[in-house]
Structure formats: structure tokens, C-alpha cells
């Protein structure tokens, strides 16, 4: 057990291999040889014994082309994990298997995750991570939109992650509606192929502000599907409940630790 504890201290980055070896008065090479058996101890999880007010699901990519799917509970601790090559539809059902129906699923909105959740927990409430929504909006509009409509919508998207209450959600939606009232005609502008033949690509016409439309209608669809402010839905929020609107707890508390640990051991083989 002393060797195993020293091995764990090394692989988690709490001690260097030299420091771990010094605990036994041996060289690094001898330490590596004596603890080689530790690589055969596979980590496991206790059975899922209770339901959670909410769970978070997300994938993080690690060396050798692997993706680690992680599911955490309302205590912030991992409930299950699943290795896969990518966040695909076949991978998520394995992650959700034998997990009791939660009150709310918080995720980045990937289709594989949503499809698996609907199959496993039909009708479960889903909260799309608002930080991911902001990232998607920023990807469409860039950090410095040129149009006034783009600047205003990006500013509104940045306010989205600060919404914490039902009243705040109502105010935000009212502002989104005001944005559309002011810029709705801008969204409808079209470009004729004869005006810009270089970008026609076989089309007769296209929306002039396609990325702006995508950013706006994404927000509209998420709200229509109940995934924008599910964390404040009165049907699932109990008195005193504080449900999350982002996957920050999982990304910062689990995924970041995994990546940081692997960062200490850049030379590990794929098997290890």
C-alpha cells in the first residue's frame, strides 16, 4: 500500500518521481520497476445508488485521440465516466446507463447527448450551458461585430450568462424581443446572385447576414425548446433551489483536473 500511495502521489502530480523514489531510498528506475504493477489497478466507480436534483454531462479530449465523457451529480462528484473516440450518439447511452432520472440535465447541447438523454429519461428537463451558448454566439458574430445589430446582440449574449433569477430571465427575453423589433428587417435582407456572383455557389439568392441570423435564431430556438432557462423553470425548481445554468462545475472541477494530471506526464504511453 505504501508503494501504491507513492505511485498515486506521482501520477496525480503531488510528487515528482524522484521525490516518490526518495521515500523508499531507491532510484527512479527502481521505483518505476517496483510500481509497474500499479498500472494494472483499474479505477472503478461505486454503483449509482441515488437520484440527483441535477446531473452534468460533458466530454473532454485527451492524448491519443481519446475522449472522456463524464457525468457528475448535484454534489459535484463524478457519477460515471465513459471512454470513447468522440462525443457520438452510441457513446452517451453507455454514460447514462443505469443512472436514475435526474431533475435536470445540464450539458453543452450536443445531439448525441440530447438523443441519449431523451431515450434514457424521456421528457427530462435540459439546461443548455449558457457559457457554451455565449461561445457559439461569439463564434458567429466575432468579438468585434461591425454592424450595430451584431454589436447589440453580442452584448445581449454576454448578459445571458449573468441571469440568475426568473425575473432576470424575463427581462432578458424582453430585451431579445426588443432587439428583434429594432433589427428584424435587417435579418430579412437578401443578396441576389447577380449582385455577388463570386459567392453564389449555384444559389440564386441567400440571406445577407447569415451568421447574424444563425446567432439570433439559435437563442430563439433554445428558448422555444425550454433549454435556455430550464434552471429557473417553476415545474422543476423547488423553494430555495439553486440549479446551475452552466457546466462550469464539471469543466473546472473534473475535466480541468484530468487535463492537469495528464500535463504532468506528457510521456505516458497510450495504455497508461
TrEMBL record:
- Does the record bear DNA-binding in its keywords? yes
Task: Give the record's family classification.
Answer: Belongs to the transposase mutator family.
Q: Does the keyword DNA-binding apply?
A: yes
| Pfam families reported in the protein's UniProt record | Transposase_mut
BP GO terms, sorted: DNA transposition
Q: What does this protein do?
A: Required for the transposition of the insertion element.
Give the record's keywords alphabetically.
DNA recombination, DNA-binding, Transposition
Q: Could you tell me which InterPro entries the record lists for this protein? A: Transposase_mutator (IPR001207)
Q: Which GO terms describe its molecular function?
A: DNA binding; transposase activity
Top-level taxon of origin: Bacteria
UniProt-recorded name of the protein: IS3509a transposase
